[in-house]
Amino acid sequence: MNIAVIGQPISRVDGRAKVTGRATYAAEFSAPGQAHGVIVRSTVPKGRIGSIDSTKAEATPGVIAVLTHLNAPKLPYRPHKGFTDPDIGERLHVLQDDRINHQGQPIGLVIAETLEQAVHAANLVDVTYAAEPAIVDVGRVDPVRPTMQKTDQGERRSPETRRGDAQDALAAAEVRIDRTYVIPRENHNPIEMHATIAAWNGDQLTLWDKSQWVSNVAEEIASVFGIPAENVQVISPFVGGAFGSGLRTWPHVTLAALGAQVAGRPVKVMLSRREMYYGTGYRPHTVQRVALGAARDGRLTATIQDAYQETSAYEEYSEALTNATRFLHSCPNVYTRHRIAPMNVHTPTYMRAPGEVSNIFALESAMDELAAALEMDPVELRLRNEPERDEFKNLPFSSRSTRECYRAAAERFGWSRRTPEPGSMRDDRLLIGWGMATATYPMNFAPAAAMARLLPDGTAEVMSAASDMGPGTWTSMTQVAADALGLPMERVKFTLGDSRFPKTPPHGGSMTMASVGSAVQAACLKVRDEALARGGANDLAEAMQRVGQPLEASANVKPGGAGKRFSMHAFGAVFAEVAVDPDLGETRVRRIVGAYGAGRIVNPKTTRSQCIGGMIGGIGMALMEHAVVDPRNGRVPNGNLAEYAVPVHADAPPVMDVILVEEEDPHVNPLGVKGVGEIAMVGVAPAITNAIYHATGKRIRELPVTPDKLL
Amino acid sequence: MPGASSPAAAQGYRSAPAPLDVVLRVNGAEHRLALDARTTLLDALREHLHLTGSKKGCGLGQCGACTVLMDGKRVKSCLNLAALVEGREITTIEGLAQGDQLHPLQAAFIERDAFQCGYCTSGQIMAGVACINEGHANSPEEIREWMSGNLCRCGAYDHIVAAIRDAAAVTGSTRGG
Where is the composition biased (Basic and acidic residues) (chain A) (predicted)? Predict the structure, then answer.
């Protein structure tokens, strides 16, 4: 049977559940007798708890227990580091002592019969502090050398790299630019707030949790409570967005489990929107100096990137802030340095395209500044610096479709009609600007496992402990399984989001399709081969009828040696049109065209959704998003969805064009996929700010470009 | 600020607020509930009636994920106290389809892939149904304006607008106020 399901624009298999309200997210499970937990949080960024009095809270009707460091059980907190945890430092331990490490740190948990009672009682816990001077203002920290830098693949690498002599080359360059770019702290703000329901049965723990990595939640919580990981089952079939906030196991998960243990009944903890700014990570504030030197003909002779990012004082979170600079454009002399600014804040974490999206904003802004200085078309400048191979790793690219992306996107956009002078294009009184940027994101492929079961009736069940925070894992894995089994999709049931299923890597880094997809494919091919052999037939349905009993096969996949022979990344090009109101300083994005070379596309329908979603995310980054940190105390005064502005319907450009260029890459992984979730956001912000420069002649180097910056 | 104590709250901490008997009309059925007076319509739906299709994304009326219809008009259920909406006809996402027959907007959401994670989807659909009924679905620009109270962090706006256009064409939309 040959059914082409891979590459087809198939509607989501979980679509009906989502449009009828039947898809069940973490807080929506119902454990019998569950109580509600509300977290009490510190109101100082550093110091010790002087006193904590829960008498009033405990006397409140409906309150079952109030946990603080004074009465909470001591937890083993055995060592555990998941791939998504910072290598250096130690996670926050909750309710174990009187230390305050950051503003909004959990210092208590109120458990009550109803949510209303718990919220009320949490307000009645009286706390005094012995506050200590805190560093919460990133502008006043001297950055330091991190212990190491983690690449997207998790390799440790020196935070400083050199190729040639960039300083001398910059000094000798015919044309140079040397600028500093700033991106403020940004929050993931998925519409679903983080939530956990914890239920103990003896020493067995069930967690219904919002997570991008259920197996790691099980391992982390097992380490905290000192129990075997197999005693913890984590269930997370639907994730209401996360964008990285669900990659780590945050303190509220421990608190839910602790609360359930003390209360002797299941406990549900759902964070408030405000709490989402104090305990589930954020994209760190970054400051990046980029200096470029070039010959008059546009060829780069020197590239310097000196970047730093905020992190916490208790963990060294370090993201791939300088990786792309080393290979994106051809340049003989490159210097990159990555530093960190530790502060008394909670630890930042991966947020959609972590590292790359910030890196590329600075680099591609600088490239646009160089193009302007050279009076050269920005696309032409990039074409003149198109590398033949990865000059940092000294390896060929497994595939690189940048030229095709520039060509396809420029043509669709109508780039040839652009007049180069800033302010030269108008629509009545509005200033029109056209800008572009290159995009890239690494192809990540990590060990993954899946299990496939064929039933005598010719249907199949396939499972893996993967997640679906929105890209369409439920659907794409069903397609891969159906393709490998040679069955129609409706005869294949794929299930994810349970830590008892075969293990996967985290649902992030655009690696789910490559990793879980390859495992699903391998398990399905294996069980199909076995069925055909045992049934002695060429038709699977007939073979299974003859076998007459279920057959199972599991598969583990891991990367081969391709990473040693090739540099593997997705590439793309983003073009944007903005209209700037010269009197109001308001920028509207009118059109975005993105072209991507991301290997094989399993489902163009859901892929387009990912791509337009990344564009919307990039519009937020460019024009709106900024978690304001009060420099006196580390509070986030705009920590809600009215004041932390994110794009709404009216901000979406009328024209959003996604071009998926044909790209066959036999090296990256068995499926030939590169993933699109992250690259879709990379390059959007610089394309927009470069367009704003073209419209206004104003170069805004600090995001977001709010109206005040253009007046 | 997180964990701050509120003087107003502190005054009445000992008194047990008596539960209120509340009758809610949801999706054509009557539900008798004994509710804390502070219970919002959203929490009554989710925690007491186990109708979890209406989503909580902020509890502050900022995101629109909790949008339901009240007497046919869209409201944010997190901003309404349950006890104050007695006698009103509440329609949630669970009450939109006719049996297995999806509402045209639900079908259009699937066809247009007008969501990713699905968490804002119930609110988008309920607001979209109202947007069409109000006569505010005559052009993409108009839809974008009248749907701007419903946030989608996955950024599916383009597809949501297309789905509302499709459904408006099926169900009929007239220009209104």
Answer: 152-166
